[in-house]
Amino acid sequence: MMQRRKVETKYVYRSVCALLLTLIATGMFLYTWYGFVSVNNHTGHLTGLANLGMATMIYAFLFLVIGRWLHAFSIGVDRKIVLLPSLALTIIVANFIEVFVSCAITGQFRFFHEFLGRYALLCLAQIVLLALLVIQMVNVYRRWFPPLRLLEIHGDHQNDLREKVNQRWDKYEIADTIYVEDVLDIFESEIRKYDGIIINDVPTSIEHLLIKKCYSLNKRVYYSPKLSDIIVHSASILNIFDTPLFLNRNQKIPFGSAFAKRTLDIVASLAGLIVLSPIFLITALAIKIEDGGSVFYKQERVTKDMKVFDIIKFRSMIMDAEEDGKPQLATKHDGRITKVGRVIRATRIDELPQLFNILKGDMSLVGPRPERVEYVEKYISEIPEFHFRHKVRGGLTGYAQVFGKYNTSPLDKLKLDLIYITNRTMLLDLQIVLGTLKILFNKESTEGIEEENDDGIRS
User: Fold this and answer.
1) Whole-number Å distance between alpha carbons of 432 and 366
2) For the chain, which terminus, N or C, has the lower number of CB atoms within 10 Å?
3) What distance in Å separates the CA atoms of residue 116 and residue 114, rounded to the nearest whole number?
């Protein structure tokens, strides 16, 4: 009972925090909007108030929805270093959309530049104030809600799951560990001492038994899903018999969805090439001036249906960095990386020419990152299911890039990519694109970069 109340209180606290952040952000917007309306309202006081109310409700809705998409309100779930970029991006996106909404409400797009300037200043004020508030919210959460005490049940296979969990000392504490063969006889008496269990690579039959026991005892269960678990998770329920059935259609993306996704890819890549053309020009000149070599670098990658294509990047290493054609690990201070290369790799500018790959149809804006041919062959020999990720086009960004790290293992990246493939929607694509913008400012997502090479593992 105490544990249930503690969990419910956590949810209430997060909801209150989300509501408070939304109210403050909306209040600041209201002040900015009123400053405009009081000067530029030429349609009468009543119409001005109507516009004021409509704009305020739309802004609050946008802020709340975008914030939830980007996990800006995950107080106590995500670290501050993750929350703050999420919050900043939520504010920027909400305010940018509101520029167009405000023009539409007033019916005066001639005010576009004025709205843009006003909301840019609003962004800065909101980011500073709300960031300070979020930091305090997290501090209060950690004081009120200590880490969950977990019992680890492990099998014979050695992995780093426990180390990963222990990195979130603010959220979890693995208080004890029991070998799977010793757990069944003492499980019910032991589990009552903890907030939940973490199942670490035990036989499926025992895993299912433990999950059911925890369900009956209202205890949390954490476990790493198998590939089949991810596929089953996307199943729909059939209730046409008196026995429930799960249905996995396992079909290709429907024509309508495929057409919409391809249309979006073409529009987005064209728009990106136009808008980013000054960056393309400056980068190309900088690369050429530094050593006189080629501006672009091509490399064979694997995309949908195991098709091999040449991915295009801005060259960030010296010419002939892989003279023998074999992948060579790039270290943090690799001498093969040029001065310009270090800048464009750190800012991801080296990836921008892949917009040409998207326009051509070899890649999509969102999808599993395409790997080098050598690594695909290697991974498939070790993990036969690795070819599942080639059911869709490779992407400029993907689920694994947003929720994984540079040093995430191939199996875990496959699981993340499979979650996307089995649940893909246009809304999920949008969430991933926004999430990608967020991680550009999060060094945690690049953990392990010094150990990776310039290939699909890095991407």
Assistant:
1) 7
2) N
3) 5
Task: For residues 17 and 135, give the distance between their C-alpha atoms in angstroms, rounded to a whole number.
Answer: 11
- Which token pair is 287? 């690369």
**Inter-residue contact 405 to 443 (CB < 8 Å):** no
Q: Residue 303 CA to chain centroid, in angstroms? A: 21
In the chain, where are the structural domains located? 2-144, 148-224, 255-451
- What is the length of the chain? 459
Q: Helix, strand, coil % (nearest 5) of the chain?
A: 60, 15, 25
d(CA 329, CA 453): 4
> What would the CATH number be for the domain defined by 148-224?
3.40.50.2300
CA distance 390 to 381: 15
Least confident of 96-105, 171-180, 218-227: 96-105
Residue carrying structure tokens 């249905």: 247
Residues 106-145 pLDDT 10s: 666 666 677 777 888 889 999 999 999 999 999 999 999 9
**CB 265 within 8 Å of CB 426:** no
Determine contact, residues 349/314, Cβ cutoff 8 Å: yes
